[in-house]
Design a protein that fits this description.
Elements lengths: L3 E5 L4 H12 L3 E6 L2 H13 L4 E5 L5 H15 L4 E4 L8 H6 L4 H27 L5 E5 L15 H27 L6 E5 L20 H12 L9 E4 L2 E2 L3
Parallel strand pairs: 1-2, 1-4, 2-3, 4-5, 5-6, 6-7
Antiparallel strand pairs: 7-8
Bound molecules: NADPH dihydro-nicotinamide-adenine-dinucleotide phosphate.
NADPH dihydro-nicotinamide-adenine-dinucleotide phosphate binds next to helix 1.
Family: Belongs to the short-chain dehydrogenases/reductases (SDR) family.
Protein name: SDR family NAD(P)-dependent oxidoreductase
Organism: Frankia umida
Length: 245
Amino acid sequence: MSKIVLVTGGNRGLGFSTAKALARSGAVVIIGARAEAAARKAVDTLEEEGLTVDWVELDVTSPPSVRAAAEIIRERYCRLDALVNNAGILPESTDIVEHAFADTSIFRQTFETNTFGPVTVTEIFLPLLHKSVAGRIVNVSSTMGSLTDQNNPLSPYYSMLLPAYRSSKAALNSISVELAKSLKSTPIKVTSVCPGFVQTDLTPISRQQAPLTADEAAQIVVTAATLPADAESGTFIDANGPVAW
Ligand code: NDP
């Protein structure tokens, strides 16, 4: 029986590559996208490759949008085997360089998508994940969220942008741990994943420096979305194994 998988922000970047890789592996992939045109473009591209994918409109910052998407997936598929909380932002603003800590709106905006987004989506999709025999939740995080690994070589521009981003991912990691604890008595496993430094629109300035293509980086997300039954829950991993929290 094919796995039913939802990838938020699946229309481009890492999410698109994850959707493609999962569809190639035989999963029924649902692309969650906040814009219909972008979703259709992604679906068309994958269908040209002979893959079958579905899509739902889904803005992770809008609970009504998430609830509507869950209702559509419940009607079409009755369950969800894997939820990939991929949608994320790294806000761009020249203001941030001057006011990295003074402007809390940047923190709020970043947390709204990167942290509260996955919480909302997970909460609303949990009933469908409970209907799976082996539900998996993947929170696409970053070593930028690690409180241990603070030595990432980045340009000054990024280092000024990063406090809000880093802390949104640190909080997401904490949420992964708490969620794994609360789901301990169920088959559902939760994993925080760092895909590495990836060539996507999220990293436009240093895109050339990013060593990984989105297709390469998607592999670790796929691994987390298809963890075997005996795998540990509540871990933080990248392609090389466990990452220090
Ligand atoms: P991109 O900017 O290329 O893609 C981001 C995706 O998230 C887009 O599909 C975008 O949709 C979607 N998105 C943003 N906000 C929302 C929202 N409110 N609701 C629904 N979808 C939304 O970034 P990446 O592919 O690089 O990033 C994917 C994930 O990987 C993020 O969580 C990021 O933090 C993480 N990551 C990325 C790294 C990198 O080096 N690129 C490194 C470590 C982690 P739309 O097209 O509508 O804007």
